[in-house]
Design goal:
Blueprint: E1 10-13, E2 18-26, E3 33-38, E4 41-45, H1 54-67, E5 74-78, E6 84-89, H2 93-110
Parallel strand pairs: 2-4
Antiparallel strand pairs: 1-2, 2-6, 3-4, 5-6
Length: 111
């Protein structure tokens, strides 16, 4: 049974052709990657500092890598200067969950 802490908000958009993901950013981290979930959001760590949009670009690139989509398929919708962000990904909710949940499970087992 999946732990409740591994659940994250992923909402349908564009009649199933895209989804919205809420992300909790951790800029300036030593290691980049998926750090689990936090309050229903994916927690992503990037080494880029939160200056001049560098962390936002790194977050979008990391999210694209985690979901195995092109960088152009990921767009920041909200939270440009906040640690809480919302991204639009050109991927169905089911596909996004199918790609992220195994990574979250593996990360939880390592902890």
């Amino acid at each position: 049974m999946r732990a409740l802490a591994q659940d994250f908000d992923c909402r349908d958009e564009a009649q199933g052709r895209a989804c919205r993901l809420r992300v909790r950013a951790q800029p300036g981290a030593r290691r980049e990657g998926l750090s689990g979930t936090w309050n229903g959001m994916l927690k992503l760590a990037v080494s880029a500092p939160p200056e001049d949009g560098r962390a936002n670009e790194s977050l979008a690139r990391l999210l694209a890598q985690l979901l195995d989509v092109k960088r152009s398929a990921v767009a920041l919708l909200a939270g440009e200067t906040s640690r809480t962000k919302e991204f639009r990904v050109e991927l169905s909710v089911a596909e996004a969950r199918a790609r992220l949940l195994p990574q979250l499970d593996a990360q939880a087992e390592d902890a």
